[in-house]
Structure formats: structure tokens, C-alpha cells
Amino acid sequence: MDLGIRGRKALVCAASRGLGRACAAALAADGVEVTITGRDADSLARTADEIAAASGQPVAIVPGDIASEEGRAAALEACPDADILVTNAGGPPLARFETLQDADWHAALEANMLSPLALIRALQPGMRQRGFGRIVAITTALIKSPSELLSLSVGARAGLTGAISWLAREGVVDNVTINTLMPEMIFTDRMRTGFAAMAEHAGQDPESFVADFRNALPARRFGTPEEFGAFCAFLCSAQAGYVTNQHILVDGGHYQGLF
User: Fold this and answer.
1) Which of helix, strand or coil describes residue 235?
2) How far apart are alpha carbons 115 and 139 in whole angstroms?
3) Both 132 and 160 in a single domain?
4) Among 1, 23, 107, 184, which residue has the fewest nearby CB atoms (within 10 Å)?
């Protein structure tokens, strides 16, 4: 399926590995000119080379922390007229609520709410003027079913979801959409770290803990970053112009609720 976005420009945040990398790879495979950000310059460069080799598309890199003003400024300077924006950031630490300090909350909000909003504020007006824009915010499925160790992640990302709701409805008249993707049970480094913390908290063997979790899933397997990236690319497609203000679970059926 031709997504109709060949030649478009995309800024994909925190894309040296994991879900961000998968989104960048999927967009590049469809002919998008991708710029990726990440804190580890060496890892970012390797990722760019690998995506370019697989897709035949050059990939620009912007080393730096997208949660900082300096990191965002560098990213926007490198890709000031992005047609596609994928916001993403490393998840905050897992911790029980009573152990968290104000500094923990400020850091989580900066990375997972305020930084995406700043990028959207900078790029959405140009998208609307040009008559095309796709914004995908990577959040978490735990917004719908919070966990005791994920207060920071859920709090900041739920705030982002609420803050972009009106923007998503307002911009669609100019063919600019905003949606969130809510991943869970996708096997990334972040997921491995999370499982290790949860197993320790539960006093269980990590390998057995992971196996029990996997076997309890409706799909009986974990998702892959590549599956997630392909879905992100579709939301960025020309064909997805009538989909906005949606918050879509990518979790293999793990969430049991209706809404």
C-alpha cells in the first residue's frame, strides 16, 4: 500500500532505538525524509545508517535531549518544516507514589508532556498553512489502566492527551491530524526494564514473571516494535486524514475494558 507520503519530511523523537526507531524506519521505508533525535550520538548515528541502508533514504540526526530547550531548538532547526511529527521520550522511572519528590514530577512533565506540546506548538501552524500534517504522540496504554509503579508516566502522558484534544479537532480542517498511540506489551528495552522492576517488587524470578505475563496475553506473545512502527506510519499517511483526536491501544488485546 502506497501511503502517499513519499517526499514528506518527518521529525521523529527519541528514535535511536525501540518504538521511536521503529516509527522512523517505517516512515523512511515509504520514502519519507526522516530526521531523528536521541541523547546518545553514537547510537543515533548507527541507527540512521541502518535505516538508510534498509530504505535507501538518507536519515538526518540531531543528537541531544528532546526534553531540554536546547535539544528541541536543535531539532526544530534541523527540521523546521516537518510534515510529520512523532513525539516520544524515554519513560520516567518506575516508583511507588509515596517515594516521589517534586523534582521527579517536574522531570516527567518536562519530558512527557511539556516537550511534546512545545514541538506541536512550533510545527503545527506551518503544517496548517501548507495543508498537510500528521502528529502522532507515543504515550502509554497504562493511561487506561494505571499501575502502582507508573504514576509519573501515566500522570504526564494523561496530561498530554488532554492538552492536545482541542488542537486535534481544530487542525483537521486544514488536513492536520493529531492522534496518540498507546503501546503496551511490546518487547523493547524499556519493557525489559519494567518487567525486571515489577518482578523484583513482586519477589518473583524475572524470567518466570515474564513468561507468566506472556502466556496470559490474548495473543500469547509480545508485540514487536516493527508492528508498532507500521501502524504509526499508517496514521501519518495521506489516507488517514479523517482520523484525528483518537487514542489507540496497541497492546495485543491486553486491555479488557470497552472504552
Assistant:
1) helix
2) 13
3) yes
4) 1
Contact 72, 127 (CB under 8 A): no
pLDDT value at 259 more than 90:
no
pLDDT in tens, 12-34: 999 999 999 999 999 999 999 99
| 92 and 208 inside one domain | no
Q: Distance between CA 92 and CA 107 in Å, rounded?
A: 8
Please report whether residue 143 resides in a domain.
Answer: yes
The alpha-carbon radius of gyration of the chain (Å, integer) is: 18
Those residues with Cβ within 8 angstroms of residue 118's Cβ, 6 or more apart along the chain or in another chain: 72
Q: Is residue 85 within a helix (H) or strand (E), and if so which, with residue range?
A: strand 84-87
The pTM (predicted TM-score) of the whole model is 0.94
Tell me the residue range of the domain where 214 lies: 187-222
Q: Which of these, 181, 182, 187, lies nearest to 214 by C-alpha position?
A: 187
